[in-house]
Amino acid sequence: MSRNCCAIESLENYLRIFTKTKTYITRLTLKEAKARLPRRLFVRISRSHIVNIAHAVRVDQDLVRVGGKELRIGKVYKRHVLEQLPG
Questions:
Q1: Total-model pTM
Q2: Is 86 exposed, middle or buried (0-12, 13-18, 19+ CB in 10 A)?
Q3: Which helix H or strand E contains 34, and what residues bound it?
Q4: Whole-angstrom Cα distance, residue 85 to residue 54?
Q5: 3-class DSSP state of 33
Q6: What are the C-alpha distances in Å from 11 to residues 8, 22, 29, 38, 75?
Q7: Of 56, 53, 50, 46, which is closest to residue 36 (Cα–Cα)?
Q8: CA 28 – CA 85 distance, rounded (Å)
């Protein structure tokens, strides 16, 4: 499942999981999901989003594109994201 996952969006106590073909909603927090995901494959880019490094392209210093969606990189996460997703 983790290889097919492109991005995860927090909906408070639920998550919206985006794959290339489907979207799923599950009862789990972003913190719990991050603990379960392989660190080498996923990076948290904001309080609301985790992205799969293999599916993410950094657009600029503030944006990441995943499957046609542009997601803003949070200030707190920026340095780590820039290390994980070199431009």
A1: 0.92
A2: exposed
A3: helix 30-36
A4: 10
A5: helix
A6: 10, 17, 8, 21, 20
A7: 50
A8: 26
Q: Which residue has the tokens 């999981």?
A: 17
Q: Which residues lie closer than 8 Å to 31 by C-beta, 6 or more apart? A: none
The predicted-structure confidence for 9-66, as pLDDT tens digits, reads as follows: 999 999 999 999 999 999 999 999 999 999 999 999 999 999 999 999 988 989 999 9
Q: What angle do CA 62, 68, 72 make, to 5 degrees?
A: 20
Q: How far apart are the first and last CA of the chain?
A: 27
Beta carbons of 29 and 11 less than 8 angstroms apart: no
Q: Name the amino acid, one letter, at 4.
A: N
> Exposure of 87 by Cβ count < 10 A (0-12 exposed, 13-18 middle, 19+ buried)?
exposed
